[in-house]
């Protein structure tokens, strides 16, 4: 990669290198941020194969398989090697085309892969079989000398895990448990969740310590107070309505005598009108008749006329 960057102007090469470093640093834990850094590097140096490859892996990590496949193809054209062939096939799976991934597993490019690449291609092919509903064929696809070997290689844990998962898919639970245990034994970097799968098969449930503390806090209750008669009194909570009534002062308390006097309306025409309204309250209301002699009200559709 350094040789590829040396073809760029010094300042540009430094900027591209910084973005690629951030992609590698964030790819596993913060793939979205890694993807953003990869897009910056791609804008700066789209003709550098290492940049196209990094952009492909960042897109792959966030599930943008179409973008990833395009970047991998570009990087392969620039370098001429086939090491990206398995991940390109897996992009086909991600795009819902497992038959294409399976076809790629039979191409001559697979023979150009190193041992690790061939194991990776076998796992992709097994996944494609399962996508197509061929679970038994997936089990057969994973059976290989690398699976039977007792030596621990970088791919061993993932290969054993894939085989255990395929066995479980066809109902061979006892064998699946055995291979999950073997995968856990080889998984020195914690690249799989084999321990969780084993616990699930054994019926063991892990409980977070923080969840236990929260449950204990919820179970704490208020100790009841004992009255003078020896009875235990239960705490009584005031309703919101009672609290508001208790806090609301009386009108008489809020207004002084002087304020109340000032609040009274002055005598005049408006006061006379108010008196007439007050007197009219004693008269029983009569429904207003419509032109047809019926009381006004909603029409047949329920709307007011």
Defining key terms:
two-stranded antiparallel ribbon; disordered C terminus; Serine Threonine Protein Phosphatase 5, Tetratricopeptide repeat; 2 strands; 305 residues; single chain; mainly alpha; 1% strand; 18 helices
Main sheet record: 2 strands, antiparallel
The strand order across the widest sheet is 1-2
**Range of strand content:** under 5%
Give helix % range: 55-70%
Number of strands: 2
Oligomer: single chain
Judged by helices, strands and strand pairing, the structural class is mainly alpha
Distinct helical segment count: 18
CATH architecture tag of the domain at 1-80: Alpha Horseshoe
Any idea what the shape is? globular
Would you tell me the overall average pLDDT? Answer: 79
Give an overview in words.
By secondary structure, the chain is mostly helical. Among the domains are: 1-80, Serine Threonine Protein Phosphatase 5, Tetratricopeptide repeat (Alpha Horseshoe), CATH 1.25.40; 81-134, no CATH class; 143-213. Helices cover 62% and strands 1% of the residues. The chain contains 18 helices and 2 strands. The chain has helices at 2-5, 10-26, 31-44, 49-61, 65-79, 85-94, 98-104, 115-131, 135-142, 145-148, 156-169, 173-186, 194-202, 209-219, 240-247, 251-254, 257-263, 269-280, and strands at 225-226, 232-233. It has a two-stranded antiparallel ribbon with strand order 1-2. A hairpin with a 5-residue loop joins strand 1 and strand 2 (232-233). The model is unreliable at 235-246 and 248-305 (pLDDT under 50).
